[in-house]
Amino acid sequence: DRLARSLRDLHTLVDELTASGVRVQFLQEGQTYSDDPSPSSRLLLSMLGAVAEFERSIIRERQADGIARAKARGVYKGRAPVPDEKIEHARELIAQGIPKARVARDLGISRSSLYKYLSENHPTHQ
């Protein structure tokens, strides 16, 4: 379940590795895959991948449900927005040539959040 994000990715990755001469072994499941897979080993790989993909989708579903319930109770509010003054200061620093990654790090936010704040059409965020 940690090797690939989907069943297709799992098959692609195992095929690429085995084509390069690498033997892929799943210790917990006791499965080994080499450059000449048998039909039964391909079936077992598909089953392992399908079960892992199913488990991951169940986890995501439960997580989304938990977040929705927390939001309904008013507990889950997300991160507090960065004050306008800090965004204006960030604009000044960027205008001075300071890299955006450093400005974001100094604000304690991700670069993508900084870009979002910089691109917002609010009068104070222009």
Describe the structure.
- The chain has two domains: about 5-75, no CATH class; about 85-120, Orthogonal Bundle (Arc Repressor Mutant, subunit A), CATH 1.10.10.
- It is mainly alpha-helical and about 130 residues long.
- It contains five helices and two strands, in the order H-E-E-H-H-H-H.
- A hairpin with a 4-residue loop joins strand 1 and strand 2 (about 30-35).
- Helix 3 (about 85-95) packs antiparallel against helix 4 (about 100-105).
Write the layout of secondary structure elements.
Elements: H1 7-19, E1 24-26, E2 31-33, H2 39-73, H3 84-95, H4 100-107, H5 111-119
Antiparallel strand pairs: 1-2
Helix pairs in contact: 3-4
| Number of domains as seen in the coordinates | 2
Biggest sheet: strand arrangement = 1-2
Shape: elongated
| Span between termini | 44 Å
Number of helical segments with 4 or more residues: 5
Instruction: Report strand %.
Output: under 5%
Helix-and-strand structural type: mainly alpha
Radius of gyration: 24 Å
Secondary-structure element pattern, one letter each: HEEHHHH
Show unreliable segments. Answer: 122-126
Q: What is the residue-mean pLDDT, rounded to a whole number?
A: 86
User: How many beta-strand segments?
Assistant: 2
> What does the largest sheet look like?
2 strands, antiparallel
Helix content: 55-70%
